[in-house]
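We include the entry.

. . .
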Amino acid sequence: MAMPLKWEFPGGKIKPGETHEHCLCREIAEELAIKVSVHHVLAEVTHAYPDFTITLYPFICTIISGNIILREHAALTWLPREDLASLDWAAADRPVLETYLQFAGQETP
């Protein structure tokens, strides 16, 4: 948990030679014990925190197998799109959420 008590989208560090999509699928399998299918690429986001800078490569995915098991996260919530903004998001994740909400209004995965 890089930002304790803040909501973040799942993901992690890209390994050498790994694509962004493969990284996300691997990280979600490791963190949540599920397999996902990537459907859409969203705009990348770079955010500078006081101690580090992070670049997020977000995707819209669907679960294709497994049951969620929290291996690295303190909590999980599944909300309708219109309720997502009510959470206390980490600063780097807020632009991802805004982009997702704009996209989600156009097409559903």
The domain at 20-104 is CATH 3.90.79.10 (Nucleoside Triphosphate Pyrophosphohydrolase). The longest strand covers residues 34-41. Strands lie at 34-41, 45-48, 53-56, 59-66. The first helix runs from residue 20 to 32.
